[in-house]
Amino acid sequence: MRHNPRFLRVLALAALTSALAQASPASDLFGAATRAVETRYFGWSTADRAALSGKYAAVLEERCAPQGDACDYATARKVVGELLTELGDPHTNLRDPEGAERLAEVSQNRAVSRTGARVVRVTGGLLVVSVMPGSPAEASGVRRFDLLTRVNGQPAGKDAAGQDLAAGPNEFVRLERTGAPIPVTLRRAGAPDRDLSLTTARLQARDEPTLAWAGPGGKTAVIQLPTFLSSDSSELFLTRLGEARAGGAAALVVDLRYNGGGSLGECVAAASAFGPVLYQSRWQGGGHTYGGLRGEEALPLLARAAKPDWNVWPGPLAVLVGPGTASCAEVFTYHARRAGAVVVGERTRGVGNSGVLFEPMPDGGVLSLTVLRAYTDADEALPAFLTPDVSAPTDIAALTAEGRDTTLEAALTALSALATQQGAAGGDGAATVTRAGATPPKAARTTDAPRPGGASLGAGRR
C-alpha cells in the first residue's frame, strides 16, 4: 500500500494539535486558524500549507512548554502571524478581539463614541485623513491632513527612524471609546502648534465620503472615499457624486489613498458610476459574477448588455492611490481606469485579486481568510496591485509643513491635460482644497452641499 506523504503530515498535525488543544488556549487558537487555512484557503499562494502548519505546530509546542496548559492566546497569535507571513498572502491575517470589534463596528454601522477624526501613523505624528461632517472634531476646527504630534500626553506616530511611538491609531481609538476628552497637540501648515481637547459623541463607526473643491475657480470636485466596509458606501458615494455634478464640477478626483477595502458589492456598485462593471469571483467548487451599473448593483446580464457610456460621471477623472489603497479599493481603481480614469500616486497594497471571509476564532478575534480569486469578465485574473499612471507619492513633510498635497497637485495637472484633450475645462495643478463650510481662497470655490442624515469581502485594518 502506498502512502501519501502530505496526507500523513496532515494526520500528524491533527494528532499534535488535538493533543495540544486539550492543554491550552494557545493550541485552541492555533488549531482553529490552521484548520481554516488548510481546508478553506483559496488564494494565490502556492505554499505547502500542511507543511507550514506542521512546522509552526512544533514552534508553538516549544514556546508553550514553559507555560504548560496555561499557554495563552497571545503566544498563539504570534506563532500564527509568523505562519501567515510565510504563507505569503497579505489578505490572510489574524485579528485580535479588539481588531475584530473595530471591524464589526464599521461593517455593522454601529454608533460608537468618536471624535469624528480618523488618523494614520506617519513620521512626526498621527495624520488626520478624514473628519466626519458635524462631528466634535470638525466643531473643534480639526481639518483633514492636520498632524497630531501628541495624544493624551504621549508622543504620536513614528520617530525619525521609523519606529512606532507610544500613541498610534489603535491607542487613539481606545481613548475615543472611553468617552473622555482627549488632549492633543495639533500642527497645521502656516500656524503655530496648539493644544486642544477633543470631545466625543455617539457617531457612526464608519466614515463618510466627503466632497471638497480644488483647482482654479474651484471647478474640480474632490471626493474622499474612506471605506467600502459599510452597507451604504456606494449610496453615499453616489450622493457626493450627484452633489459634485450639481455644483458644476468640470473634473473629478476620487481619493482612495486611505481606503483599505470592504464589501465587494459596494465597490463594484460604486465603480460602475463610470461605466458598467463585471467582476467574477471563484472559490473552491463554485463562483459568482457581480454586476454594477450607474452606481448601483445590477444583474450581471444587464451590466454585460449595457453600453460603455452608461454612467453617472462622463467627465475627466483621476483616482488617488497609495500603499493604504487595498482590496476592494484596488478593484474600484482597476475598473475606474478601464473607464478612462488616470491613476495618480503610489503603488497600491497588492491584494486586489482576491477576497476574504472573516472566520471567528476562539479568542474572540477573527481570521481574515482568502477564499476567492478575482477575474475580469474576459476570464483574466485581476492584477494584485496597481501601478499609477502618474507617479506622485504623498510628501508628508510638504503636506504638514507647507500645506501642499503633492499627489493632488499631480492629479490636477494630469486632469488639466486630459480636459484640454477633451475640450473641457480643467485645473492647472494648484493644490489648494476648500472644504465645505470653509472660507475659500481666491482661486477656489466651495459648496455647502447637503448631506444625508444617515443612511465583506477584503478590508484593510483601521
UniProtKB/TrEMBL annotation:
An example Gene Ontology biological process: proteolysis
GO molecular function, one term: serine-type endopeptidase activity
Cleavable signal peptide: 1-23
E.C. numbers: 3.4.21.102
Gene3D superfamilies cross-referenced by the UniProt entry: 2-enoyl-CoA Hydratase, Chain A, domain 1, 2.30.42.10
Keyword Nucleus: no
Protein name per the record: Carboxyl-terminal processing protease
Organism listed in the record: Deinococcus budaensis
